[in-house]
Amino acid sequence: MATSGAVGEGYSGLNGFVSETEHKIMTDLPAELLEYILCFPVLKHVDICNVSCSCKRLHDVCHGRGKVWGHQYKLRWPRLQKHYRQNECCDWLKEYRTRHTVGLQIRRTVVSISKRFFTEVPCVGQVLGDSFAEIESLGAPEHFCEDELLSILNSDRRKSLTLKYYAKKILYFLRQQNILRSLKMFLEQPAEQQSALEGAVLVDQYCNPLADVSLDGISSQLEEITDKVKKMLRMKNSSHPSLRVTQGDCFAVEDFELERQVVVALNAVLYEQLQYKGNECDYYNPLNSYIHQVLLRRTGIPISLSVLYMTLARKLGVQLEPVNFPNHFLLRWCQHQRGSGDIYDFVYIDAFGKGKQLTAKECEYLIGHQVTADYYSAISTTEVLLRMVGNLLNIGKRGEGNEKSYQLLRDSLDLYLTINPDNVQYLLLQARLYFHLGIWPEKVLDILQHIQALDPSQHGAVGYLVQHTLEHIQHKKHPVEPEVKRRSAAEHVEVQYSVGLIMKHKRSGYNCVIYGWDPKCTMSQEWITTMRVHQLSSGANQPFYNVLVQDGTCRYAAQENLEPHSAPLEIAHPEVGRYFSEFHDSHYVANEELQTRYPEDMAETLGTVRDLYHRLTPSSGQASGQQESPKGPGGSSQDQKSQENKEAMPM
Predict the structure, then answer these.
(1) How do residues 69-95 score in pLDDT, each as one tens digit?
(2) CB of 601 closer than 8 Å to CB of 590
(3) 3-class SS at 421?
(4) 641/645 Cα distance (integer angstroms)
(5) For the chain, what are the domain ranges?
(6) Which of 341, 349, 410, 467 is the most buried (most CB within 10 A)?
(7) Rounded alpha-carbon distances, angstroms, from residue 341 to 273, 568, 577
(8) Adjacency order of strands within the sheet including 346-350
(9) pLDDT tens digits, one per residue of 345-371
(10) Angle at 475 between CA 471 and CA 480, to 5 degrees
């Protein structure tokens, strides 16, 4: 950018004489006009740096707290504007430098952990310590880290898949850590100040850290339902005191008849108008426990619907209490003087059963057996959360042993032990889970030490796990070199397909992508028998392929059951980024780690793609061969066999 060019040239006067030429340079312009020019969208931060170094005048115009650097900051990181007050004056140049430095460090961190994750079940917290200590030393706000991770995730959908895979896991972990801190602060509040709704939202956020779930958002939806109930109530009793309640008011209706009118109106809106109902058909779906999903799908289980019902009732002045009834969470509504301890002074509301009102005896009919009076008592918000998290824990334990169920089990254990940190049963379950998955052995030892201090009688189970965890730590100090499989080897001559190809299963019809192969089936004889591999024409004596399936499973399929897909498409599997760096129209490009294990497969894949899909346009096949694979992790099929849910699907 020229800073000393003439603004005006000489001109000829009326008498033919040339007056003295007037020269004006850019730096003579007013500061406001210079700022306006330097905020032009085509100028990047490098341009501003160059301009500010050209002379003192422009250096002063581009000062750190000025409009120019503020514009650059907002232009590059628009998501961060919500963290600043409007017209806030701050050192934008310093903010820019810090955010830029954090971005570089975040990307280095994502790349550095990928190699360590390739042959293990990813556990971000295990390896983030040193890398994030460096970021924390910068004194940067946490939202800088999150913004950079979101920038990675929002880049080109088909590219940088490995970078996105680990960025997503890091963002998941960081948000969960923030939510745990919020949960601990919530639990430190006096019991009477704890809201069951806020606790339920924290549970929801922890299990769904990448979803847009907030207490304000949930509260706004409940206010809309409250307004509908008020409208219904106004039709029945236009002078009802609940109609005068505004958001945030602490109010209680004292008259029983007025309370009854609220409950009737609430039932009419919630169950008749909005069609909320208990999810009897899919009771053990974890979505039933997440309050944002209950509002979205208008269905849930007894405890989630009870939290919703109780919150709405309290907004309208009716004080309902949670009851930890076995097998079926309930609410109780006092019909007599408040503070009564007689279970027959209450009506029990079944939010799962469309707000049906039950006597104490009818509650027993609901579950089919008698219970003691203790089960009819009101419980605290903390106990409500323990019951809610306990439900998720049981769902996780009922899971199929895939990554999704393991993640739910890990998340619910984290939550339960945050609320009740000295529960030996769940501490032991957490240690066994981590041991089983082969992750974070150092944390396993910490958990076991805590268990031993709480309950010395557990020394048998603790001793066994300590011994094998120490062996695992020693084993990790001497990692085995990954197996390299070359197609040119004589024993691999029968392998027809290569990693990255999009395939279709001939019998089951599912779509998948190959991420590994073996020249012969390497599973146990028990697995081979269970999967009826012997019924295949070539039995186990043929190549088998590790494939990521469209439905989110990982399977082990025989060569004779696979064929190249006639119209290749992207495979929406959560682990795709672990093995591939890019989807290139008709195939996936293996990332660096996967190419290390299958060094000759990429050329084979490109040749197959060219023959199958690019016969009419050979130039496109050549172009695909020029694609570069960014650094990232991958994995051999052998490394993953003990961790994935594999099915031969021979039939």
Answers:
(1) 999 999 999 999 889 988 778 999 999
(2) yes
(3) coil
(4) 8
(5) 27-76, 93-188, 193-386, 421-480, 501-612
(6) 349
(7) 35, 67, 58
(8) 321-323, 330-334, 346-350, 356-358
(9) 999 999 999 999 999 999 998 888 888
(10) 160
